[in-house]
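Title: Prediction job returns without error message
Component: structure pipeline
Severity: low
Priority: P3
Assignee: unassigned

Description:
Job completed but the reporter wants confirmation the result is attached to the right record. Sequence as submitted:
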Amino acid sequence: MRLDTKHHDRDVARLTYVYPVVSRRAKGVSIGVNLNPNNACNFRCVYCQVPDLQFGKAPEIDLALLERELDGFLDWVVEGDFMETSVPEESRRLNDVAFSGNGEPTSAERFDEIVTLVGQVLDKHRLTGKIDVVLITNGSLVHQETVQRGLAQLKQLGGQVWFKLDSATEAGQARINDYKGGLDRVRENLRLAASLCPTWIQTCAFEMDGAPPSEEEQAAYVELLRWTRAEGLPLEGVLLYGIARESHQPEAERLGRLPEAWLEAYAERLRAEGLEVRVSP
């Protein structure tokens, strides 16, 4: 097993729920917890690199198996030779455990129990408070009580939420994410997430059919950030990133990477609204 930032194969460790990646955003090793091994999601993002993606939710999770896999993998990382044998020298740092995989993790019916379980495994390895715990989510299910309990538990672990927001228009969300739930739901779920756990907005920006996001899309996004400030949402900031890996969706050939200079200029426009913006080209 040799890892790099361009390959995030969920099967690289030959486990059901746990997989390692070298994260360009985390600048180190992230241990993923994939609660969607069935490749099911309630979004279909045009840039998604999951093959054979299907509409749906996470299957029933075998908590005992998840615990064994995470416990064993952390043993290999913390006590064994994983870093030396599998990770480029400049990235040999355990940065986080992330709920991120082949679909929307909060669609797991026992999501709150799963967060508690992961916290217990981290406690066993004396990692609580020493590494990040991240939920990478499209935010569409935050209104559910099970998810809210999970976010409250995530906060107790010192964790954070990365809330996907690729567009602040309903047309853009339908085109990019195949999401038609409406902006009112997005705003309310973002408000809930930020009230329960430290929350970043994460946004993927890219060319589509040779063009960057339109001025209309950019202006709508800025207006949404202004709304968060006016409403007093305690957001951590914005994680703005570009496409790094090949999409496995039908739109793949229509997508392209934006120049780093474009992303940086857009980030400056967003910073003018008073939020921290981190860029990962």
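Comment from assignee: result matches the submitted record. The first helix runs from residue 63 to 78.
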